[in-house]
Specification:
CATH superfamily of the largest domain: Winged helix-like DNA-binding domain superfamily/Winged helix DNA-binding domain
Structural class: mainly alpha
Number of strands: 2
CATH architecture of the largest domain: Orthogonal Bundle
Shape: elongated
CATH topology of the largest domain: Arc Repressor Mutant, subunit A
Largest sheet: 2 strands, antiparallel
Radius of gyration: 18 Å
Distance between the termini: 27 Å
């Protein structure tokens, strides 16, 4: 699927997608409970708010609803890596004039990356370099 075909999720929708990706599929109640477990502030999200957001997400094509049973079950319409890739590309295009390097430098410069994270970044760079050599 082309990146531009993936609908742009709002922050709230992205929060719900994260829950759906972790659970695979879930009822509104399960999504709502997980959202409230993750809350760091004391503001709970109401059941009807979660239901309305899931309904909107189905309309937008971000989620799918299985209505075979009395209780509707929802799941993400796109894999997590697809949505993340799409969001990153849009961010790189809009905020960094398409420069992945500028975006990565900004992230690494403003984030206290752990040794493990830096090792993973280095390994990824080595992997990309090897793939380029193979293509040449």
């Amino acid at each position: 699927m082309k990146q531009q075909e993936i609908p742009q999720p709002t922050e709230a929708e992205l929060e719900i997608l994260t829950v759906l990706w972790s659970l695979g599929s879930a009822t509104v109640r399960e999504v709502n409970d997980k959202l409230n477990e993750r809350r760091t502030d004391s503001k709970e999200i109401g059941y009807t708010t979660s239901l309305k957001l899931l309904q909107i997400m189905v309309e937008k094509g971000l989620a799918q609803r299985n209505t075979d049973n009395r209780t509707h079950v929802y799941e993400a319409a796109y894999a997590q890596d697809e949505v993340q890739r799409n969001l990153l590309q849009r961010l790189a295009d809009s905020a960094f004039e398409g420069s992945a390097m500028q975006m990565v430098m900004q992230v690494l410069g403003n984030h206290d990356a752990s040794t493990e994270e830096l090792d993973e970044v280095k390994a990824l760079i080595e992997k990309v370099e090897e793939l380029r050599k193979l293509r040449s």
